[in-house]
Hints:
Elements: E1 7-8, E2 15-17, E3 54-74, E4 95-99, E5 108-112, E6 124-128, E7 132-141, E8 160-167, E9 186-189, E10 196-199, E11 203-204, E12 210-211, E13 215-221, E14 224-229
Amino acid sequence: MCKKYLENLSYMKPTWQSSTFSSLGTSYKAVDGHYTSRNYHDGQCAISGLNQRSVIWRVNLGKIYRIDHINLYFRTENLKWVYTNGFTSYPLGFSLYISNTTDRLEGVRCFHDSKYTKHTIPDHMSIKCPYSGQYVIYYNERIPGVTYPVGSSPHAHADLCEVQVYGCPSPVAEVYQCSKPCPSKCEKCHPGTGICSKCITGFQGYACEIACQADANIKVSPNVTLLGSI
C-alpha cells in the first residue's frame, strides 16, 4: 500500500443505514467531517433507531478501492468514557465488512469485536482492513439466544459520529503512481503493487509503456528468406 498517499475515501460519499432515530442522526452525518461534538443533540452523529435486533450502516465509495484502515468514532454524548457511560455498551460485538455489493455476506469481514467489554472498549478505533472493495459496512446485532460480550446493550445500535475509510485514491498502489489512474494501456492493475498485470495486446512493462516488436525470420521457401518485423 502507498502509505504516503492515503486519503479518506469515505468523506461526503453516499451512505445508508437500516434505521434512523431522527433527522438529527441521518446516515451521512458519519462522513461529513464533523465530529467535534459526539452528542446526539448537536447533530454530528449517525444515530440508528431504537429497539433494533440488527443494524447496518454503510458507505458507498463510488468504485472499488484498495483500503488500508478504517477509523471509527463512537457516540459518547460528550461524557467521560467509562463503564458507567451507557454508550460504551453499544458497539460491543460489532463487525466491519468490505464488499463490492451492498450485501455484507458477499464481501469479507475484516473485523469482528469479540474481546472488548464496557470497561475496555475505546471511544474511537483505527482498524486495519487491507482489502479491496466499494462498500464499507458496519454491522451489529442482538439476536435472542446468541452470546455477546459481557455488558452488551440489550438492543443493537449503530451510533457513529465519524467513519473514515483510508486507502489509495486509485487502483494503482505503487508509490510513485499512487495518485494517478491505471495506465491507459493496462487491462488489469495489481492493487497491492501498482504493477500492471495484464497489458492490452501489443504492449508490455509495469505501466504498459513498451510497445512490443517481435523480430522474425520468415522462411517462405527453401531458397528465399524474408527479414522483417511483425
